[in-house]
Each structure stands twice: as C-alpha cells, then as structure tokens.
Design brief:
The structure is a homotetramer of 384-residue chains. By secondary structure, chain A is of the alpha/beta class. Chain A folds into two domains: 134 residues, Rossmann fold; 192 residues, Dihydrodipicolinate Reductase, domain 2 (2-Layer Sandwich), CATH 3.30.360.10. Chain A is built from twelve helices and 14 strands. Chain A has a nine-stranded mixed β-sheet. In chain A, helix 1 crosses helix 11, helix 4 packs parallel to helix 5 and helix 5 packs antiparallel against helix 12. Chains in contact: A-B, A-C, A-D, B-C, B-D, C-D. At the A-D interface, strand 6, strand 7, strand 8, strand 9 and strand 10 of A face strand 6, strand 7, strand 8, strand 9 and strand 10 of D. Strand 13 of chain B pairs antiparallel with strand 13 of chain D, so a sheet runs across the interface.
Chain lengths: 384, 384, 384, 384
C-alpha cells in the first residue's frame, strides 16, 4: 500500500536528500526502492547500499533510472521521483520522469528559467502527473491555521505584508573553502541567476502567496553582493505591490551573520495582525487592534480543520521541520492512494505552478534591480 | 538490514503507539512486522490492516504473539517489541517477550510496583536483552548538550536543581467523559498508585538524573487531588535531596489549567545556571554569574560530540518531539546492528534500570506523602 | 502642594534610598526636606548636602530628626518619613515618628519580630497615621490588572498558586568581601532571623496575597544555607495551603547563580491560568483552558480601572521598577492630599498590616523548618 | 542647585509634555518654574495651576514667556526651555528662546523644513546655547552598550543595518474622530510634510546613526498612505546606503494594526550581529557567527562605562522609557552644572545637528519617493 519512490540526487553530504527521505518515511507511506544518488556512479552505488536498496535499482544516471524503471512492471516500478539535485538539473530530470509517467516531488527553486518552469507545467498537465515542489515551510500546521484565518477575514482587509528570511551561513566566502552546499548554490552555472532570492527568497514569496492568496503585481528589488568574490547576490530587499494595492516588503539575506534560519511572516489587516516565525514554528501570534495578543499553539487554540489535518501530536509536543516537510509527502501520497478515508486537504501541497511563480518572481526581481525601478510582476503560469 | 519489530498496544486512539511508530520509521532503521494492538482482537486486526501488516502476524493477544513469533525463523521473527499498553500490563508483556529472547522498548513508567521493575531488570540481564524505557525527553540533542556541560563542570559545583512538569489537560474530570487516555491513566487498576508522578513526574525525575548524574537520596512529597472525584493525585510537589546534599525541587501537575506540556529544567551551580524548556526544545539558556546569558541552539553553539551525534538538521531547522523519541529507537538499533560505523553514543538511551529508578521514586514519594515527612530514597536497582 | 518628607537611612551606597527618592520625585508630588541619612553623622551631612537640603535639617540621628522636626511649624515640618535603614531599625524609627505624628513609608520586611510589627500596627491606629510598606512589586499596573481579573473570577475557582523569587547575587560569600548590602542582609543582628525569606520571600508572599486575596493557612518550609560560612538561609522552599485549601508553592533563592531578579507569579484556576514575570513587567500572560494564550500589555488590553489608574505611558512605552515604586508614593500622597480629583484607588498601597503579615509568615516558615512539619500559619494582625 | 526650566506646550491631553516633566523630575535635577502650556491662555493657566507654578510665571504665549523671563534676575529666570508643541512651532519657539539666551530641549522632529533646522543650528552656535533634541530611544543604557560594542568593532566590519519602527495606532482615521494627538500629527500644516517618517522614522534614523556612527549616503523611499482620507504617508520603507556602502533598510509604519511601539534595530557585521527591541529595552541580543547568542541585560554583562553611567538600578530591576528620557535631561543638567564630579558622558544627548540630520532625512525620503528613484542623501548640518 505504500508508495514506491525513487530519488535523484541526495548522496553523501547532501542535507536535503536526507530530509526528503525522513519526510517520506515518517508516516510509513513511502518506500524508497530506486535511486540515482549522484552524478558519480560509484557514489550513487555507495549511497544506495547504505540505504539498503536492491543494487539493481541503484543507477548510474537519472536517464538510466527512468528507462530501467519504465521497463519494470507496474507493480514494481517507482510511482514518484524525488528530485534533490542542484537547481540546474531540476528541469531535465523532471521532464524525463514526467514523460516516463512518474509523478514528481521536486526541490525548489523549480528551475533556473521561466521557460523551463512553464515547460514542466505543460508536461505535468499533458501527462496528468502530480507535481509537488517542496516549499516546505507551508507544511507547518500553524501556517495553515494562519492561512485559514487570513483568508477567512479575521484580520479584516489585508494592508501590509512583511516577510523576512535571514541567514548568516554565507557571511564568509564559504564557496572558496570546499563547502559543497555553498559551492553549487553560489555558482551561476548550477544555481541559476540568483543566490539569496533563489535559495530562500523563493520560500518567502511562496509563503506570502500561500497564506494571503495574493499575487505580486509589481515589485522593486535591490540586490547586493556583500561578500567579496561572490558571483551572485547574497542580500536582497524587494518591495512588493500585491493584488489590491497591498504593500509588501520581502527581504532575503544570507550574510546576516549569526542568523540561523530566520523566516518570519507578518501580516497586518484593518482589524489586526499576525506574526509567525519559523524557528518557533508551533506558535502563531495574533495581534489585536488594542495591542494585546493572542497566541495560538499548534493543536491548542488552532481550530481550523486544515491545521488539525496536518498535525500529528498533542499540543506542547513540538513538531518541527521534518513534520512540515512530511505533510507535503503525505498529501501527495493521499492524492495518489484512495485509502477509503476522505482527506479533504490532500491537495494542500505546492504545485508545479507554485514553483513557476517562484521562478518568475526571481527573474522579475533581477530585472527590477538591473533597471533600477519598479517592474510589472503579474503572472499566470500555464496549466492551472 | 532494518530491525524487525512488533508492537503490543497502540491501536486506534492511542496517541503514544503512533509516536513510537513514527519514531521507529523516521530514520528507516525499523520495520513493523507484527503486533497485538489491542486487547480486543477485532480492534487489533483493524489496526494491523491499516498499518499494512501481514494478517498472519496481527495477533489477538501478546501471549499469542510471543509464542507465534518465537516459532518463526530467526530471519523472520521480531527482534524488538515495543510495549505501549497501559502501565499495569508493562510487566507481564515485557516479561513474556524477554523470556522469548526479544529485546524490549517499553513506555514509562516501567511497571506499577518496584518488585515488578526489579524482576524486569533481572530478566534483561539473565536473557542478555536490551531494554529501553522511553523517557523521551532525554532524547533531545540540546538536553544531551546540557548533560555534557553539567557533568563536565561548566556550572561549577551543582547546588540546586528545579524541575517542573506542568500540564492542564486533567483540570476537569475528563475520565468521566469517556476520554480513553484519561480513563486508564486515572484508574489505579491500570495506572498504578500514582497519576501525576507516574505519568509526568517520572519524566522529570529521569531528566534530572540524566543531566546531572545525581541520584535522589531523600525526599519530601506533598500530593494533592485537586479535581473532585479523581482517585489519584493530580498535583505533586517533591522536595529532593540529591547526592552531595544538592537541593532539589520537583513539581508535577496535571491541573495547571492551560499548560500544554511544560517540562522545564533549571540547574544552578557555583559558576552559573542552565535553563531548558521542552516546548522550546532546540534552545538552551546558560546563565552566567554576571546575569548575562548565553543561548545555544541545537547545531549552533552546541558543540559536544554527544549533542551532534543526535542531531539531524542544520541549526534553525527545528527538531521536535518525534526526533527526540527517534533518538532512542535509533540508538537501540545501532546497539543491535553493527553497520561498520562507530556510534560512540549508541548506548545513550534510558534503560530498564532507569525505569526501575522511576518506579522506586514514585513509591517513595507516595510513602513520604503518607508519612508526612522526609524519607530515605536512595536506591540501586539490580543488574547495572 | 507637594508633600514634605524626610528620610532615615539612604546615604551613600544605599541603593534603596535612591530608589525611594526617585519614586517620590517622579510625579512631582513630594519634596525631600529633611534627613538622617546615616548613623554616621558626617556621612549624613554629606548625603544631605549632595541632595541639596537645608543643612539645618540634615540630622545626626533619627531621634534628633523627629524631635527637631516636631519643633517646626506645621507648614514646615515633614509630613511623611521614609525609612530605608537595615531591618533591625525599622521598628524603633517608625515608632518614634508615629508618636511624633508623622506618616510612615517603610521598607520591608516591616520589623524583625512579630511583636514589633504588631506594635506598629497598634501605633498607626492610635495616632491615625498612614503607614505604607514598600512591597513595590504590587505597584506594577499589570499586577493590578491580574488582581482585578483573579478576584473578578476570570480564572474560575483558584486551585494552585506558584510564586518564585530567584536571585543569584549571594551565590558567593559576598558578605565577607566588604559588600555593604550583603553584610547587613546576612547578619542576624541587623536582618533578623531570615535572609532569603525576609529579603525576597516576603515580596513573593505579599504578591500572592495582593493578587489572590487569599491568606496562608498552613505551611511547610524547608530552608537551606548553601554558601558555606553564611549565618542565615539563602534558599527556601515553602509549601502553602491557602484559604479554601488552595495549593501553593513559594520558593525564594539568592544562590540561583546568574538569576537577576526573577520574581514570577503563576495562578491556576478552574477556567484558566495567569503568568507574570517581574523582569518583563508590562506583560501579563493569560493561559486559556485550550492551551492558547492571551497576552495583555500595560495600557493595551489591560482594561481594568485599577490598572489604568496606575499607568503613566501609552502601551509599548515600557514602564519599570521605579514607576511601580512611585505608585506607592503617589497613592500615599493622594491619600494625604485632597486635590479635588477623585482617586478611587488612592488606598492601593501595602499597609502596616500587610507588613505584619509578612513578618508573621517569615516566622512561621522558620518554625516549620525547625519542627520539620506543617504548621498553622493563619493570622490576623491588629488594627485592620 | 537644580536647573530652572520652563515649558512651552504640554497642557492637558499632551502625553509628551508629561513625559518631559517626569524625565526632568526623576533625578531631582530640575525645577519647573514657568510655562506657556497652551496656545489657549485659559488652558495654560489651568495647567500651570495643576503643576503648582507661581501664577505670575504661567504665560499666555511663548513670546510673553520669553520676554518676561528675560526680565527676571539671572538667579530666577529659566535656564532651559522644553519645547513640546506640535512640530510647526518648534522653530519659532526655539528661535525665540535661543535669542533670549535660554538653552533648549526640543521634541522631535526638530523643525518642518531643513532651512529652519539649519537656522537653529546656527543660532545655537551663535548664542552658545545647549540644544538637545529628545530622540529618547538613544537614552536607553543598553543602546549605549550597543554603540560601544559596534563602534568598538565587536561585530567586525558593519555590513547591514535593519531598523524597523512599527505602530498600529493610526490604522483607522483617528484624526477624524477628535483624537488630538492624531489631529495635529496627520495635519500637514502642523506636522510638516511627513507623518510616519517625521513621527517615528526620524527616531529610527537617529538610532542607526547613534549606534553605528554611519551616515546615510543615498536612499530610496517608497511611501504609502494606507488609510483612506489621510493626507500624509502612514507607511514608509526606505532603503539606505550608509557610509562605506553598508546596506540599510528602514521601515516606519503607523498602520501595522496592533503593533504598540515596536522599534527594533539589528546590525550585522562580518563577525556577528546585534538585536535590540524597544519594548524589551533592558536586553541586548548579540548573535554569534556560529548561531549561538549572548544576551546582555542592563547592568548584567553590559560592561561599558557609557552604559553604566546611564543606569540607575541593579540588573533585573527594569528601567523603562522615562528613565531613558531622563538620561537626556540629566546629561543636559550635568553639562550646565559643574557639581564637582566628572561626568565623562555628559555630552551624550542628541543635539540640534542630530535634529537637522533627521529633518534632512525626511525631506530626502520624500524627494526620492516623488522621483521614484535613489537620491543622494549625504549631509552636514552647520555648526558641528
């Protein structure tokens, strides 16, 4: 009954591959049965062995994997592929597996160009495949509670959105010190045209869209490369005009020395405000117009069906990043499997269109920065 | 390569069984292959089916399970049993499986009497089986960091320990309203002689022992039953004298209305203090003698080998209760399996002797309360 | 129109004298016109000069001060005396000035014996003088909000009270290092029979009484002297039985290394809980039964008349310790002066009877500790 | 020995006048002896009476006050005038008193035009008068500690500054509801060309300059008027380029519903970061490069001479807004009076030049907004 999945990327030293595997394993809904874990075949073999895979299904390349799996019986071959490679490979890998009829769970940013992103949108439709993009932060139950309350009008008319994503891990030229993660993320050939916006700004952008339902209409971006010798921006501020003229401010920084993974969303409406911080992810602060606050905790005062459907533990038992991530995996599994139980929120995962929105946003921010002015940023990806 | 395990208890509505299963699944180290999930055979069947088990290994009773599994080949039968029943069954179930050569992971409190606890200590030794008790809160990496620092002398000579565990979920007579968890936990026949101390005080007691390495020598307990109609204490204060005359204060309450799962440990030494709260589990506050503080975060400034060995994610990516719980499971698996990699902290899980300490503590607290005075509480369980 | 006051004690190096002077000055309601600032006449002179007093009203002793001031015209002589000496002098000084018809504002603990405390109660009645004791922490507006809500029934029936006062400043033998404050506070001849309970436990006790309106009926105390060479207890735990059988826990420690001035009150009722910390004094956390919280801020969501009457600034502009202290001074002034405006809460300051309650509490705690058992602690001071 | 001062503005309903009076009174260094408290003579009379002033020194207008006071003897007349009127009067009032030889303490923003600000700079020099502008937030001791550490190089090379000032009190059209404060602050005739930047953004700007010592070189501003019917901006985002190319982000909002008085400063350097929030003003968070934190508290771990010189209470005894404000008043008094004690930081108060910087900043932000692009914002006011 478990979903059979394979993985592309995610060999030794790749933090995010391990996260995907834990997220898939948590609820017992997936079984990892195949993989091309590295562009280096021997590294792929080692990874497959450590993961206890059948050696015949540990592949030298994703192309080989797609072809060989396609040759297996329907009962055996993978149903889903998890793509956890550097950004520049997402498109080719996803394209290959979509054409082989495999559903896709792909890390973000979806692709390095808008054209590639739209190509994947088209292919997902054409082949009727599910395509999830792991904007994992929207997987937190209390973020879902925020969404329900904001969209339900609890804050009144939305007026201002402030989203910040601050990290400090790139405050030195880590890419020159042999740090694998830093190497590819700061390399235009593998990361694409953006560092901070691609790596973390796209999460912030997706979080705003998810909670408010508002799309960016116009933007002004100011990008900076603070660390000498770096090739892409490591600090970015983007002023947003959201639908309805709502004012927005998005900042993404990877040179905010000492910051760990500080993603914070605040929304102000005519009746009140809301504040969520990813490092304290079980808690949602609602700010009343009189200056008092109401603090909800996951499973304590978070009363929406949507939040409860994505919660595993009683209140006071902290859930974390893996559980949020696992909510994407579980919803994909529930969309694939009818287990006889209604799962009204099974479609609650970021889609290929959400991914395309992110890629488009990054490109518009770069455009604004280069032009030095506001640009139109409205967008509708294909295949919605 | 995965460890085959079975489960006793943990059917529908049993929160803790699901936690054990997620903890076992997280790292891909276990496979659930058998179970007796309920004393009601048909409920056990349903649970087994939902979990995708081979129906032939879903049993009507734990006795049948032990016997049948024993009849399977060594390659097939369960290696570990997870016991997640109400307290009064722990002893009989554990005894049965130990005698069948199965390693045990048992929920707390270990047993309802000291004699039973010691019997399990003896049996574990006699049959050379691993026996873990899921005092899960010691599984948090930053708690392990605290242990290293406290035992390494960073606070100087330890002088005072304050541990508090406050919940509010039993602030009404929930057991009269058909709440399953409340029913058995407040029922002397199934829970044993204690409610608050057994259910949560034993965690607090274990946490103190784990971090400080100090045993309780004497204690004075004052127990109260605050909610009318309840049969066991729902609020307890225990004054401790730890080894070396260290002053201690342990409180456990389940009628602190609104408190979620507020387990907090503070330790004061001659050089500084330390403060940890379970609801903010990635953070450790070190208090300097000058009144300034140093705040460590899991994977950020928590530098001990022990902490890092139990961490899965980069700093700023919150880990939670399940990950802490999974550290017990993973260490048991690492103790059972030699995967060629050295795991120097594989023995870092609460043992049957730790469980016996907890049961003894509960009984001594009751004794003190009934006598109205301090009692000797020193103890050495068999089989260390 | 300002109140003329004199001060006994409060010369160089005496922190609390300066606090009283700032509290008196803040609202422009007092004028310091006389003083006997030290038992050393030349030190008194210096202090008086620095404070800009008329030298003829800077006295060598409090006796001289009382006598001389009494000889002045009614328009000139002091109306109020502030007593900020070490504890052992409070009684004699207060007695002297009461008999001279002067109102008294006295630091805590009121006296070193219950007999002396009751003597002052009697004298205040006999001479119809106001007598305030500076249990300053009840001066915070948000504590007053807590009082209104607790007494108004918002938490339902009160069930449990936890009050803690932790400091670390006496975690070394500071009294042996020439530290003036430490010297007298740890000296039985000047401090009385208690250190931690007298110095800070009495504040905690008063805070409980102020907010809940419940008196201590029985108590069990365990006192410890943690720092070698100290003559009085520096760490104390007191179990309380409040009126109606409400369970209480009071701890006072001055050896909790690194703690600054951590006074915290929590109250749990049948409907919810409440949490206040003195180091974050503008904020009150209300805990709902469902585990969510409501956070009030002074002047933001704190809606009681009593809280607002003791607030000076808009919300978000922090008020602190001096402002709380000044609320005692201002209320005494308002009780003395009719300025044509109704001040319905002008009597909201700790009285001589409150002070007597504190002294009685300290003595009962010592008695319990020496007996090793619970003692009756009910009490009604004279003159209520 | 106290400084005689008069006040212009600050009658009934004027919050800030009362703050000035409490700040002046706190340390006993000032005596209020004269005032023109309202443009309405009868209101001025009432205010003067309530404050206990000699009726002959309660004036109908500031012009009359300046003239009459000038006619008094040097021992009697005011030495300092506190100007707490709406913004548009600051210039004329300050000008008048400077010419009369009176030192000035003026609320912010200094004036409504740059020309007026520079005129005051010139006059202060010409008449050798002290001129303080009450950018009160730099009066907090821990802000001074931050300054010492930042300027002393503890964070390494400064790279990024984020300052935010969010309030919610103008999230409705309060000026249409008879709210006096809202009326003049939102009225271009009385407030000048800016609302949010003038009222609070100027504080944020001054805080950055005070702590870092860096001036704004270029800026890009986006202003918004969120509440319908309002005449000036109530929400502003300003991108800064500070000296040395340091990236900065300043936001000021008065429509962030529910926010009280949320002024927060973060600074990131090559070695670490720093975080301070005005609503928690005794605490300074230093962020280490490894992601751990060090939290200083006023008088606890805040070790600079500058911080200690502006602290009144032991650690753990919260100081607040009034104490910060009083540090400006006390330093002005110490600059005026030689009391025989060295006060090395007596010049630590915001000057007329600081005020001019603020006015210039506001005007440049408006210019940028209207041009839709970056503008040069470098500036040197006269008379430094």
């Amino acid at each position: 009954m478990t979903v059979r999945y394979g993985m592309v990327g995610g060999g030794a030293g790749a933090f995010i591959g391990e996260v995907h595997r834990m997220a898939a394993a948590l609820d017992g809904g997936y079984q990892l049965v195949a993989g091309a874990f590295s562009s280096n075949p021997s590294k792929s073999k080692v990874a497959g062995q450590e993961l206890g895979l059948d050696p015949s299904r540990v592949y030298d390349s994703y192309q080989e994997m797609a072809e060989s799996e396609y040759g297996l019986t329907e009962e055996d071959r993978i149903e889903v592929v998890s793509i956890v490679t550097p950004n520049h490979l997402h498109h080719a890998v996803a394209r290959t597996f979509l054409k082989a009829g495999v559903h896709v769970i792909c890390d973000k940013p979806l692709t390095t160009t808008v054209e590639d992103a739209e190509d994947l949108c088209d292919l997902a439709v054409k082949h009727s495949r599910l395509f999830a993009v792991t904007h994992s932060y929207t997987g937190y139950p209390i973020v879902k509670e925020a969404r329900e309350r904001v969209r339900g009008g609890e804050l009144g008319e939305i007026r201002k959105v402030v989203v910040e994503y601050s990290q400090g891990w790139l405050s030195t030229l880590l890419e020159a010190e042999g740090h694998k993660q830093a190497e590819w993320r700061t390399d235009p050939d593998r990361a694409g045209i953006s560092l901070a916006l691609g790596d973390i700004g796209s999460h912030a952008h997706n979080l705003v869209r998810y909670v408010t339902g508002l799309e960016v209409q116009r933007l002004f971006a100011d990008l900076g490369t603070v660390v000498d010798g770096r090739k892409l921006e490591d600090d970015a501020t983007v002023l947003l005009e959201l639908e309805g003229g709502v004012r927005g401010l998005l900042s993404a920084s990877q040179i905010s020395t000492g910051e760990r993974n500080n993603l914070r969303l605040r929304i102000y409406g005519s009746n009140g405000g809301l504040d969520w911080s990813q490092e304290d992810p079980n808690r949602l602060r609602l700010i009343e117009a009189d200056g008092s606050e109401r603090v909800l905790h996951r499973a304590a005062g978070a009363t929406s069906e949507r939040a409860r459907a994505h919660t595993r533990l009683p209140s006071g038992h902290p859930e974390g990043f893996i559980e949020a991530f696992a909510n994407i995996y579980r919803n994909v599994a529930r969309s694939l499997r009818s287990d006889g139980v209604a799962h009204p929120f099974a479609d609650d995962f970021p889609t290929v269109q959400d991914g395309a929105h992110g890629v488009h946003f990054i490109h518009k921010a770069l455009e604004s920065h280069h032009q030095g002015g506001w640009v139109d940023a409205s967008y509708a990806p294909p295949g919605v």
